[in-house]
């Protein structure tokens, strides 16, 4: 099936194959071609060019006229928890009444609530619920996504979640990578015995996950009231023996030293960073670890926004992701993430686009194939309705400007 999109106002995401992330000032470059066409063969980018060089005699099964819309690589959402059971809107109501995230967690709500629900839900039902969310985010332009476990909190249920993620990966046309997050919270039956829970993660969960090759990455919720930097270090070390690279929740509720441990363990990404100290920017600069900001979480959970502007000004490669989960932000809308990145973190539109495409892909080790438009690759494509400029995209933050997606 050969599809050609013509009359594209601007085609974004054109980067050489050697370019695997964009740092600092490079995040502001558009990497674009005006007045363009693009040909896809079964979703794979075959060729593109200026309308002046449009091939005339070639057979196409479909010619799509963009009428001056933009074309860009699909979004790369490097941090989600979309495999979960049910929802937690009643907890959210408590938060509306004034309870903090930590207070909800202390009451036995939060993650433990989702773990109880997940325990009662069959693998098939969990798959059905998660697949609905996957289709929802695909409709909103996501073409590559990371999904975490972490609502099982015992070996059997963590494996159940990871098998669901694997089934999603097999069934969906978009790239799905998986992360083992057994250390998302201490399971109810281990409360007061956190050390033993960490041992369970290391001695039972990790080997089981590794033997079925169920996870590409490992994550830990390293934060005040959850896991300490020392515990995180132990778990990341153990996971490294199985080839699982770290992508870690740090500095969401407080800065407790998690970032240093992650950098030492060569984390692919450190995520959240709502309460990161600006003093930690040089340490990130000296590493290959990608700071991943989740502005939807700041919005929904009334937390500070990450220091996106300062990070880019310091030369870092910043990624933005949705964190779609039932507690801190039940949304996987990467268009809204872009808008928040601009409005609340002062990223410019090009920077926001690069943060949710190539740098998001880099935060999943997928940027050689995703997050850019390159011949021979299948990154997923977003075509917009006719819009005046790229800035309109994050500016018109509730307008449904996506005309069509190609996966
Ligand atoms: O990324 N911070 C830890 N985990 C999730 C929240 C999970 C939940 O509340 O269910 C997050 O915000
Ligand atoms: Fe998260």
From TrEMBL:
Residue ranges of every copy of the Amidohydrolase-related domain listed in the record: 70-388
Recorded family membership: Belongs to the metallo-dependent hydrolases superfamily. HutI family.
Enzyme Commission number: 3.5.2.7
InterPro entries: Amidohydro-rel, HutI, Metal-dep_hydrolase_composite, Metal_Hydrolase
Protein name: Imidazolonepropionase
Recorded superkingdom: Bacteria
Catalytic reaction list: 4-imidazolone-5-propanoate + H2O = N-formimidoyl-L-glutamate
Manner of cofactor binding, per the entry note: Binds 1 zinc or iron ion per subunit.
Compartments, as annotated in UniProt: Cytoplasm
Job description of the protein: Catalyzes the hydrolytic cleavage of the carbon-nitrogen bond in imidazolone-5-propanoate to yield N-formimidoyl-L-glutamate. It is the third step in the universal histidine degradation pathway.
Residue numbers binding Zn(2+): 79, 81, 249, 323
Molecular function GO labels: imidazolonepropionase activity
């Amino acid at each position: 099936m050969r599809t050609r999109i013509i009359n594209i106002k601007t085609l974004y995401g054109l980067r050489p194959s050697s370019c695997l992330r964009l740092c600092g000032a490079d995040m502001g470059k558009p990497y674009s071609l005006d007045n363009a066409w693009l040909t896809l063969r079964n979703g794979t980018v075959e060729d593109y060019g200026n309308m002046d060089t449009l091939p005339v005699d070639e057979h196409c099964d479909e010619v799509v006229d963009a009428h001056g819309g933009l074309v860009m690589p699909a979004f790369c959402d490097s941090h989600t928890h979309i495999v979960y059971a049910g929802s937690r809107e009643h907890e959210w109501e408590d938060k509306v009444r004034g309870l903090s995230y930590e207070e909800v967690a202390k009451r036995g709500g939060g993650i433990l609530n989702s773990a109880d629900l997940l325990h009662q839900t069959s693998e098939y039902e969990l798959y059905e619920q998660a697949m609905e969310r996957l289709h929802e985010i695909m409709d909103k332009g996501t073409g590559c996504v990371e999904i975490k476990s972490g609502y099982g909190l015992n070996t059997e249920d963590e494996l159940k979640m990871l098998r669901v993620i694997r089934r999603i990966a097999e069934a969906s046309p978009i790239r799905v990578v998986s992360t083992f997050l057994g250390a998302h919270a201490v399971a109810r039956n281990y409360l007061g015995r956190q050390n033993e829970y960490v041992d369970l993660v290391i001695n039972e969960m990790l080997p089981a996950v590794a033997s079925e090759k169920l996870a590409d990455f490992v994550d830990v919720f390293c934060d005040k009231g959850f896991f300490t930097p020392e515990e995180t270090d132990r778990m990341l070390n153990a996971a490294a023996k199985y080839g699982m690279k770290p992508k870690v929740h740090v500095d969401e509720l407080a800065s407790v030293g998690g970032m240093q441990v992650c950098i030492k363990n060569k984390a692919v990404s450190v995520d959240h960073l709502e309460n990161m100290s600006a003093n930690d920017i040089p340490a990130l600069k000296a590493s290959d670890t990608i700071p991943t900001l989740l502005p939807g979480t700041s919005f929904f959970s009334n937390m500070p926004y990450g220091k996106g502007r300062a990070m880019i000004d310091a030369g870092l490669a910043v990624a933005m992701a949705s964190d779609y989960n039932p507690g801190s932000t039940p949304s996987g809308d990467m268009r809204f993430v872009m808008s928040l990145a601009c409005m609340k973190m002062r990223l410019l539109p090009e920077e926001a686009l690069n943060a949710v495409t190539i740098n998001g892909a880099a935060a999943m080790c997928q940027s050689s194939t995703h997050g850019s438009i390159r011949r021979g690759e299948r990154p997923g494509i977003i075509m917009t309705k006719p819009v005046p400029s790229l800035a309109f995209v994050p500016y018109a933050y509730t307008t449904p400007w996506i005309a069509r997606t190609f996966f």
